[in-house]
Specification:
Radius of gyration of chain A: 18 Å
Distance between the termini of chain A: 34 Å
Mean pLDDT of chain B: 71
Largest sheet of chain A: 2 strands, antiparallel
Shape of chain B: extended
Number of helices of chain B: 6
Strand order of the largest sheet of chain A: 1-2
Largest interface: A-B, 60 and 47 residues
Largest sheet of chain B: 14 strands, mixed
Helix content of chain B: 10-25%
Number of helices of chain A: 9
Distance between the termini of chain B: 56 Å
Strand content of chain A: under 5%
Number of strands of chain A: 2
CATH architecture of the domain at 1-111 in chain A: Orthogonal Bundle
Low-confidence stretches of chain A: 106-131
Oligomer: heterodimer
Shape of chain A: globular
CATH topology of the domain at 1-111 in chain A: Rna Polymerase Sigma Factor, Chain: A
Structural class of chain B: alpha+beta
CATH architecture of the largest domain in chain B: Clam
CATH class of the largest domain in chain B: Mainly Beta
CATH superfamily of the largest domain in chain B: Lipoprotein localisation LolA/LolB/LppX
């Protein structure tokens, strides 16, 4: 997720792709909305599904809320404080935590083993439906096992680092910890994850 | 090993999630387009606020002059009403225990649900977005009851928008009206250091004047506390208290208030739980394609879509009414009738609660007592409509009536 791509302003000034996207969002350029979605939706969705016990509907709501929220508050984004990705994932994480808190209050039942018809439909593409659903359930049970084994912050750090490929600095910006603390949490999380996954394979 | 572990985790997370559906993209892009961008925070201003807050930490709350109450209130109201959506989660603490409510409010949309220990005990969904639908659901003494009816558009203006925030919108309205008007309400305006910024706090104490408001009875000493974002003037939180002995007992508090958050699709519909007895179903909706009579005046067009007679002699008129000048259907139309036996039918408003936009049902009831013995159902009726009491009526003459039915519509459906 590091900012390696660059773009140029009309004046020829070299800026990062993220800075260019932020400028276009601030100018309310219609194309920027689609770009914003393409840049972050899949990642936020993965993160939210993993955190929300496979509840795809709620995760999709998190995607929409996060991206709309970010577009609304884009004037408040400060590149000096964090990368765009860290800022957006920070919003997503807060939306997820809000959803989890709400569920705790409402005592909702986790949906570990649910696969909606929509999701099965989307994932077929010529693949056998039952096989696709089984693979997804298997993946979800692995993720659920990790979630059960890890503390919330450990799980977040693991997903943001290993799946979303945020740097330790960016993960620190998301969870509001130091880079050093992120390394320490990640080490701990991986240790627990290894034990759990190896244990599951036995 | 670390790389392999990372890959395995990545594969599992990616497989478990899949991609968001295509409609999510449309929702997000449309949401970004529609949302009003927030202004950048002035770093200097934040610095000043934080510094001021640090001073105030030692002092607790610092009183500020409240200023012109009416202007303050109008300011808050305008700010709240500028939101495209409002989402409120709140706790209600009463003699029967605690309920958690979640309310969504937008122009043409309202959903409020209350849960006790996680169980849904009350729900109201008024959704004008796809189709007008007004649902009520309640569990009382273990019995599930519901009402389903067509709805009228609900404008998100003025007081209506404060309803979900206030918990009991009417109570808050009364409270804040008095707060705005001054009078004997003691008010303070306070400034505190909130998380990440500053909030104004407005408190009002008063004596409950209405008989019963859900969180206080007449004569109770009550207090309302609202936190306001000084930048946006929007309400950040509200709490209600009731004086019990010499202690303020919390009766209501918002856990979160969000503005301009897209309404999730999952809250736009509701299916009555199995075993719910539902009254006033939208029985007449499938009948509005046909037009059996039409009348026009300078201002209005009325169409009668269906007529029914029951064995009590009541005539059910399914109609639609259109204004030529505007589409404002505020207020209920009236009608009266006279049948082929010269039996007059009283002037009743559309009282079945089934008005949807311009469509509705009026029940015309005979003004004379009909003898069950030898009563013969009417075969024709002349109906006079008054769209507004002070406007020219529309008369539809000698409309044929069908044979009388024992039951015109199913009043209750068990799901």
């Amino acid at each position: 997720m590091g900012e390696v791509e660059v773009a140029r302003t009309d004046a020829g000034e070299v800026i990062t792709a993220d800075a260019a996207l932020v400028a276009r969002l601030r100018a309310r350029t219609p194309e920027a909305y689609a770009e914003m979605y393409d840049r972050f939706a899949a990642g936020i969705h993965r993160f939210a599904v993993a955190r929300l016990a496979g509840d795809v509907g709620a995760a999709e709501d998190v995607v929409v809320e996060t991206i709309v929220w970010a577009a609304r508050d884009i004037a408040r984004f400060s590149p000096g404080n964090s990368s765009l990705a860290a800022w957006v994932y920070g919003i997503a994480r807060r939306r997820v935590l809000l959803e989890i808190r709400k569920r705790k209050r409402l005592k909702s039942v986790p949906r570990e083993a649910q696969v909606s018809a929509d999701v099965i439909g989307d994932m077929t593409d010529g693949v056998d439906v039952a096989e696709g659903a089984a693979a997804r359930l298997d993946a979800r049970s692995k993720v659920a096992a990790l979630r059960a084994a890890l503390a919330e912050v450990e799980f977040d750090v693991l997903v943001l680092s290993c799946v979303e490929e945020l740097s330790a600095r960016e993960v620190g910006q998301v969870i509001r910890r130091s880079e050093r603390a992120v390394h320490s949490i990640l080490h701990r999380a991986k240790k627990k994850a290894r034990e759990r996954l190896v244990g599951d394979d036995r | 090993m670390t790389d392999r572990l990372g890959e395995e985790i990545k594969r599992a997370v990616c497989e478990a999630a899949g991609e968001p559906r295509a409609e999510v993209r449309a929702r997000a892009v449309e949401g970004m387009r529609a949302v009003t961008p927030a202004r950048a925070r002035s770093r200097r201003w934040v610095g000043v606020a934080v510094a001021a807050g640090m001073v105030m930490v030692g002092l607790g709350l610092v009183s500020l002059p409240f200023g012109n109450g009416s202007r303050e209130w109008n300011r808050l109201l305008a700010a709240v009403n500028s939101a495209s959506t409002i989402h409120v989660i709140a706790r209600h603490i009463g003699p029967e225990g605690e309920t958690v409510s979640e309310t969504w409010f937008a122009d043409g949309f309202y959903r409020s649900e209350h849960r006790q220990e996680g169980e849904l005990v009350r729900l109201h969904l008024d959704n004008d977005l796809p189709v007008g639908r007004d649902l009520w659901y309640e569990v009382r003494n273990g019995e599930k009851r519901g009402i389903e009816r067509a709805s009228r558009p609900r404008p998100a203006t003025n007081w209506a928008a404060m309803g979900p925030i206030g918990g009991g919108g009417d109570e808050l309205r009364a409270t804040l009206t008095r707060l705005a008007e001054g009078g004997n309400v003691r008010t303070r305006r306070l400034a505190i250091l909130g998380e990440g910024g500053q909030a104004d706090v407005i408190e009002a104490e008063m004596t409950q004047e209405s008989e019963w408001s859900g969180w206080a009875r007449k004569g109770d000493r009550i207090k309302v506390r609202a936190e306001i974002d000084p930048k946006t003037n929007r309400v950040l939180s509200i709490a209600h208290y009731k004086l019990e002995g010499d202690e303020w007992q919390l009766t209501y508090e918002t856990e979160s208030i969000e503005y301009d958050v897209p309404i999730p699709d999952r809250v736009k519909t509701f299916t009555f739980p199995k075993g719910t007895t539902v009254a006033y179903s939208r029985w007449w909706e499938g009948r509005t394609d046909e037009v059996i009579a039409e009348g026009k005046s300078d201002g209005w067009t009325v169409k009668v879509h269906a007529l029914d007679v029951d064995t009590n002699g009541d005539v059910y008129v399914t109609f639609s009414l259109w204004s030529h000048r505007d589409r404002d259907m505020s207020g209920w139309p009236f009608a009266e009738g006279i049948d082929n036996r010269q039996t007059p039918y009283g002037r009743f408003p559309s009282n079945t609660g089934t008005v949807y936009d311009d469509y509705g049902v009026i029940v015309l009831r005979p003004e004379v007592e009909l003898s069950p013995k030898g009563w013969k159902p009417p075969t024709e009726i002349t109906i006079t409509f008054w769209p507004r009491e002070d406007e020219e009526p529309l008369v539809l003459r000698r409309l044929p009536l069908p044979p009388a039915s024992e039951v015109v519509y199913q009043r209750e459906i068990v799901y």
